[in-house]
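[Q] Does anyone have a clean structure-token version of this?
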Amino acid sequence: MANGTPVVRGLSAGPERRWGKVLTLSLADYSPCTAAKLPMDPTSATTSPTLQTLPPWAKQLLKRPLIEIRRGLSLDYDPPFENSSVIALTAPSGKYVDIRFRLAHKEESSVKKESEHFAGYATAGTATAILPIGSTTCEPYECTVHVKWEHPIDSSASFATDGADMYLLANGDTMEVGVMEIDSKIRMFKEYWTTPKHCESSDYVVVETPASKDDETKGMAIRMGNYCQGVLQTATDFWVERWELNNCDWTKDARSNTGQGDDILPCKWMVQDMRKVGDKTAIDAYTWEVIEASTS
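[A] Here you go.
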């Protein structure tokens, strides 16, 4: 999920050291609040591991809902730096909203996909995990999963699918490793993610306004723990909001590009109450509906 033009590529050290035989899973497949809907025969322990048979590292890497805050980015083997305020919210279904506000006091970086509508970059869509289970010629990697992010909502309008390997670190954080093109060169990137310890992520709401055949508008918003993020993309505009709960009050991040009194995104409606599946709100010409929630 790095800022740049990502290249989906599995890291390998030779023709055999690849992902080999993999099991493609929706992130909801290993949610503790849903039944395991495996794409393979669940009776086969070698091809379809259930949640109970997965090692602890896999359970942690596949845990959803998930709040991720980026703590640094490095290129190749350079020291990490941070030039953005990055928060990604991912629901058990894999629906996610990733918003990256540029830190104005930081120097400009070549690792960027700046939006013309706000100082930063944002995407939303669906994430899918690929769990390596090895093959007869390749032992499976441990403490890592491969994740692909589809972003039909993209402030850079690239709408590509990117991917990277997620490694579980000793302190419980994760390191995302992949490659991307910068100035016509393919370079390795590493992003360092942490989960906030002070807030509970089990309560969540996912809201969407679907795109129609006659309208290119599409939007998504997710409330999770102490955060709520939303994006709305039209043929000509891109709107983004981030809200945070502090001292029992929800406040909108000043870097959001909607005015304090503007009702463009459903975030204010979402933080007023814990919404449930099927709840709807109309804003201008668009209807937003809760499609996933921790409460029924």
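[Q] Thanks! Anything notable?
[A] The helical segments are 56-61, 267-272.
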